[in-house]
Amino acid sequence: MEPGSAFFMVLMAMIGGAIRVSTPFLFVALGEMITERAGRINLGLEGTLVLGAMSGYATSYQTGSPWLGVLVAGLAGCCMGMLHATICRLPKVNDIAVGIALMLFGTGIAFFFGKPYIQPSAPRLPSIPLGGWSDNPQVVEALKINPLFIIGIALAFFLAWALKNTRAGLILRVTGDSEVAARALGHSVALVRLAATGFGGFLAGIGGAFLSLYYPGSWNEGLSSGQGLMAVALVIFARWHPIRCMLAALLFGAAGALGPALQSIGITQGYYFFNAAPYILTLFLMIGSAGSKKALRDAPGELSLTR
Amino acid sequence: MMAADPVSLPTAPTAGASRARTLLWLGYAEALAIPLLALLVSALLFSVFLLALGKSPVQFFQLVWLGGFGTAFSWSNTLLRAAPLMLTALAVAIPARLGMTMIGAEGALVLGGFSAAAIALPMIGTVNPWFMNAAMLLAAVMVGGLWTGLAGSLRRYRGVNETISTLLLSYIAIAIMNFFVEGALRDPADPNKPSTRNIGAEAMIGKIPGIDVHWGLAFAIGACILLYVLMLRTTFGFACAVAGGNPRAALAQGLPVGRLVVIASMIAGACAGLAGFFEVAAVHGKANASLAAGYGFTGILVAFLARHHPLAIIPVAILFGGIAAAGGIIQRRMGLPDASVLLLQGLCFVVLLASETLYGRLRLFNPALRTERT
After folding, report:
1. Average pLDDT over residues B181-201
2. How far apart are alpha carbons B145 and B271 in whole angstroms?
3. Is the pLDDT reported for residue B8 higher than 80?
């Protein structure tokens, strides 16, 4: 493959794009995976993502520290997650509907307070240039990696280990598979789910901060368009396993990078269709994976989504 | 997530007819009082929020009244927004009666409106406006119905979660419209905003005589009444209610649950498509990005507040149409961002869902609780 050819350029742009685009998917999916392993589904992560993007950007602008922005975004997301858990622990309340409500609510808060931050430019997150070995500008560009991506990958492996080998992981899985068993073991179902949903919201908030502080790297009202929701579908496709979540996030990232990559070599026709590629991919993956025996086997027993 | 049908209230086997009737009315009262309470609590919470920002809640609600319901002009503004809200709320409520949470009305509205504008293109200026409007309406309703029907079929045949699939289909629908509106079907005469060609003044749907609102309002109210009859007064509606309450029991009774799922989702999409038709043929005159104005999302809230009852949707849609209509004046007079309406809606929605927990637990509406405790 000769560097400089159109195919090579698209390939490099897709790899670079996949790494950038997949990071928010990765964080939201890992968070949602933990929430769903506790037996609850939080569809409000779309709103959490937008709120995280806004609060992260605003904090970075006010304090000058993008990493503080990431932390604040995570905490804002955590609050949203805990709100979800608190409402859902009331009897007769449907977790899917509460998720939809929080999607609107989170977006509402973010747009309300985010208005003054649309214009100003906040300090962004730095990137680590890993492509220094190559003298090809496309390779260098593609391998500028954000630390959050590396943290996300490490987190996926850590969660995979922790779910299997730690006491907390066991309690989480028991709560998700059988409320009765969890209660019999003396664990508070509500408390475990509060922690799991709060953790999920924390990660989703960080995913949002990545959107506004790194790529695309600005705050506006059209910043997130369904990433939070696609991540929920991605968790089902990944059958609630952290490593598979990571791989699926990379796949989604590559699909999302397709449109801009083709645009970079001048193919602009069908731009909107390539932009819709992640949604179409999600839909087909859901058609392929829903109702399969494997999905039913791996699904947490208490999850309302698959019952 | 079934609406609390008074029919399903538990009645003691020995209870007489009058006692049963009392329980029925108590059920209605409960279904009215709890959402009202939720609205009141959200208004209070929003007032606290405004006070914390140093704004006056009294002024806010005065402006909502003024901008939404105070004058004849604000009423027509309100009803203009209430009409599509009724239809998008129906698009949520009908599947909800079958236990499905479908939230893709926004996409079906956009795609329906776009289809109407697209089918009108070769007819502009040459065909009788009546015929043209009929073709547009048919196209919008059919495309909307098929689009959401797709989500219903996926649920029926593949078990795909309908909440996620409908929202994904919404994003895809908007992308399809953008693709054509910014490409093949773009009107070259309009340099500002990519749009399809205007259907022309003589083909626009007129106003209802006497009020300053287009015929879409009459169609929307008609749809609410029609679907009320269908869902609460026919065997089809009863079959839907059974399938929504307990799918296994419905299957055991030999009800075609799968077919009901598809039909209900097609009705839902048709309603949203109808809203799209009126947005194009009575408001904008063309299809462009303004079609995705958020009616589909506010419709979700309207349907939940109305407890998925088609007739209750009418007043709730008017209420939220009024709040939306007041958005502009609130923005201008109080200096609040236009997202305050979105925030208020989100807050209402959250409080409303939390209030669901009160059903069957208030002694006032549930005499059985009073005797148990003593």
Report:
1. 88
2. 8
3. no
Give the rounded distance of the alpha carbon of A109 from its chain centre.
19
Report whether B140 contacts B112 (CB < 8 A): yes
A38 phi and psi angles, rounded to 5 deg: -85, 0
Interface A-B, measured as beta-carbon pairs within 8 A, has a size of 138
- Mean pLDDT over B83-88 rounds to 98
- Token digits of residue B130: 């009546």
E strand spans, chain B:
none
Of A97, A225, A286, Cβ closest to residue B101? A97
The conformation of residue B288, written as its DSSP 8-state character, comes to B
Q: Does domain A6-298 have CATH number 1.10.3470?
A: yes
In angstroms and rounded to an integer, the radius of gyration of the C-alpha atoms of chain B is 22
Which of helix, strand or coil describes residue A15?
helix
SS (H, E, C) A47-101: HHHHHHHHHHHHHHHHHCCHHHHHHHHHHHHHHHHHHHHHHHCCCCCCHHHHHHH
pLDDT of amino acid B198: 92
CA distance linking residue B170 with residue B110, whole number of Å: 8
- In whole angstroms, give the CA distance from residue A257 to residue A251: 10
- Single-letter amino acid code for the residue at B133: N
CA dihedral A213, A218, A222, A226 (to 10 degrees): -20
CATH class for the region spanning B56-335: mainly alpha
Q: Which of B159, B160, B44, B88 is nearest to B321 (CA)?
A: B88
- Please state, in angstroms and as integers, the Cα–Cα distance from residue B45 to each residue in A97, A104, B51, following that order: 20, 16, 10
Cα of first residue to Cα of last residue in chain B, in angstroms, is: 31
The amino acid occupying position B171 is Y
What pLDDT sits at residue B263? 97
CB atoms within 10 A of CB B225: 13
- Can you say how many angstroms the Cα of residue A179 is from the centroid of all Cα atoms in its chain? 27
For the beta carbon of residue A78, count every other beta carbon within 10 angstroms: 23
Q: What's the rounded Cα separation, in Å, for the pair B195 and A78?
A: 41
Among residues B97, B85, B106, the alpha carbon closest in space to that of B148 is found at B106
Cβ within 8 Å of residue A28, ≥6 positions away: A45, A49, A203, A204, A207, A227, A228, A231, A232
For the CA atoms of B66, B69, B74, B77, the dihedral, rounded to the nearest 10 degrees, stands at: 130
The set of residues, in sequence order, having a beta carbon less than 8 Å from that of B319 and lying 6+ positions away, is none
Of A43, A104, A230, the CB nearest to B346: A104
Cis, bond preceding B35 (omega within 30 deg of 0): no
Kindly list the domain boundaries of chain A, sorted by start residue: 6-298
The alpha carbon torsion through A83, A85, A86, A90 (nearest 10 deg) reads 140
Which two structure tokens, joined as six digits, stand for A230? 């696609």
Q: pTM of the full predicted structure? A: 0.91
The residue of A36, A46, A48, A272 whose CB has the most chain B CBs within 10 angstroms, and thus the best one to mutate to test that interface, is: A272
Q: Which distant-in-sequence residues (6+ apart) come within 8 Å of A236 by Cβ?
A: A286, A289, A290, A295, A305, B161
Q: Would you list the domain boundaries of chain B?
A: 56-335
Total count of residues recorded for chain A? 307
Q: Does A188 touch chain B (CB under 8 A)?
A: no
Is the Cβ pair B178, A272 closer than 8 Å? yes
Could you report the predicted ipTM of this complex, rounded to two decimals? 0.91
Tell me which residue of A225, A270, A256 sits closest to B180, measured CA to CA: A270
Q: How confident is the model over B227-260, as pLDDT tens digits?
A: 999 999 999 999 999 999 998 899 999 999 999 9
Mean pLDDT of chain A: 89
